[in-house]
Amino acid sequence: MSFPTALSTTRSAPIILDIRQISKSYQGVAALENASLQVRKGEIHAVLGGNGAGKSTLIGILSGVTQPDSGEFLLEGSALAPRNPRDAIKSGITTIYQELSLVPALTTLENIFLGRELIIERAGMKVLLDRKKMKNEVIELAQIFGISKDELDIPISEFGALKKKVIEIVKALTFDARILILDEPTSGLEEEERLHLFDHMRNLRSRGVGLIWVTHHLDELHGLADVATIFRDGRTLESLNLENSTVGEITNLMFGIQSNEAGLRTKNDRLQKDDKSNRPEVLSLHAVSRAGVLRDISFSLHAGEVIGISGLAGAGRTELARVIMGIDTRTSGQIFLKGKEVNFKSSAFAYKAGIAMLPEDRKQLGIISGLSVAENISISNLSSVSRFGFIISRKKERELATKYKEILSIRTPSVNQKINNLSGGSQQKAIVARCLNSKPSVLIIDEPTQGVDVAAKTEVHELIRDFTSKGGAAIVIASEIQELLELSHEILVLRNGSIVGRIENVQNSIEKSRVVEIKAEVLALSAGKRLKNEI
Amino acid sequence: MKFKNFFFRSVSITGVPIFGLLILIVALFQFVVPIFNATVGDYITNLVPVLLLTVGAAIVIIGGSIDLSIGTVCGLSAGITMWTLASGLPTALSILLGVATGTFFGLLNGFLITKFGINDFIATLATLNISGGLLIVLSQATELYGAESEFFTSLVYGSFFGIPTSFFIAGAIILLMQFLLLKTILGRRIFAMGNSGAAANVAGINVRNVKLATFVLSGTLAGCAGVLLASRLGGVQAFLGLGYEFTAIAGAVVGGVSLAGGRGSAAAALAGGLFIGTLAQGLQLIGVEPIFFGIVSGLALIIGVIFDQKIQDIGQLRSRFDSRVLAQPPRKEGDHG
Predict the structure, then answer these.
(1) Any idea what the CATH number is for the domain that residue A516 is in?
(2) Are A522 and A481 in contact (CB under 8 A)?
């Protein structure tokens, strides 16, 4: 797979950001070593690398959060050394982080002008905000990015993920940003929203802004990024012109290994293909509803099977998982586990009955941050590491964790490390270990690979396949349709809390290379549109 | 390098800094006021009920909540014990009723918070007033007294091998709580819940029951404290216990129990409580007027917390350093570019 040309003209554009030999180490350990890269005017410059390759350190330096030990960077020819984020923004470098940095209760306009409000003076006293003037100043720009005049007066909390990102972009532009750093801008966005965001990025490029785009999603680069710089072990390896590079080449550079196209190729030979009816039913839902969130959800899950759940954010995907786990209550309907009706009052009962869940938001809901890796692994089944049913044996706990560390290749020098010190991929694998240790017959996985690099992603997929090949059943929730296609036997599409479509025999269809069609179908169903013929 | 590792590890273990400070001021007072040693047994005997409250406060705080009612519940427990003793109930039964009063209020707090979803601060503020009010009614705003049980008096004034009985009682209870927090399944769940309630909920912990358990423990400890307090005082005033909750919470916090939840231990809380108590005692011996104690203990709280945070920062720095090492992908041999 090779990338078709984006805008080849940008190669002759002047360099606006010149990063020269920047190094930074933390207590003797190099996070960046002589990193160099150049961003041209009107260029989308992708920054790639595995977890811990040094990308975040570079962003930290450019945005003034940390200062380099040596080296310098020039913005439009003059050297810059921002001491704090405010300095960097004033000089024209704005960073848009993965996490939202807008104030939810304030309106769009208030957010855009936060900290530098225009003020009306009355009797020599600065009293009132000059809303009119602020509005006039921003309205034109806002409209270019699809924010209407009315939307300027609506609190941020009312908007979806995409709009919030766009508002941050507009805010950056009113600060006269010449370099815009986007850190994983598509995380949390739906497929369609991603495409809209990409349009906005093209728009920024044509305005002459230099974009630094940090991403784990190599498939997104296609037709959008002009140049990519690859980071590994704190060094910048190479700046590639994306016209002539393949995904395979990039992953090789990123990891220094052949990572078999790193999960970009569909690979589901390990999925069992025999008829569903041969295998026992493990979990079934009959008309399960939760007022205002879920309506009449019914499906049945068999041993060795993976059901994928697709749908836009707010369609009820995560809510469905929470209702099955007993974290939220259902208002009607029945759930059967191995033929017996169940009604869990809390997730503790679900785990005991054999359902485990890997939650969506790893930082908030997945890891228990103050605890060690071992403590995080054992927490869902503490009786597996205890004596007399109530005293925890540290030794048993360590042994258990070490076993999983080796099986799942969790990267940590010791299982006694605090889990927050691990990379995203290893944290995710530790939570997989936690789930597996509760000996589940059903595994519910919400966004299995969010914020995880390509190599770890393949490994997590392997773990899921391994689990089902041993007779386990799984429900996988994912925004990326590609991911669902790679893992599931059947895909359910949710919209407004109801199942609006089912795609059965997914792997047979993939063999007949209907991948693009299925993707289009799922997208159309999620958005509530009719299937378009031209796709 | 070995020493450096040891240093970083020990300062990041909660409770170690405050133990250091405690030893420091004890040594200081011994040096400045030679009679300090002779008074140690006495002032710790006075301190014992508050130390039990401090450990109870710590358990709830580690679980991520706060219990404001412990002071007045302790007072009410003392009142109930005294009242039933004075009305001629057997000593053992009176003691049991005193402890049960604490357990009851713990259950009440727990249910208000977990069943009805009332904010912990508000719920325990309400039960603070209720338990305090009940003691006023019970004592008819005067004083309860008249216990004529030698066994009851011996809880505090008796001694084994020259050590007051109450030391053994409180010591056993605190040891048990330390064991419960650090070694048992319930303890682990309390830490997990305090670190991240939402994540614990998803990981299969019945957070409501665990939260309920922390309040029952803290209530029961307040009950025990009340019984010991009644035994020591011999009479229970209408407003007994009011304000103890703040001394207890301050002690726990000075000991390094994080108000954010998920960090601390019974031993750390004990050290914090002893620190504040020792400071007050030492100042009194030096000759500082008791009217200044409020100011001094307030300042001690601020200094203690700042000290603990700085120490934690050093620990953090250390672990951030570790995370840098971890974040580096393993380097392949002969791979230099």
Answers:
(1) 3.40.50.300
(2) yes
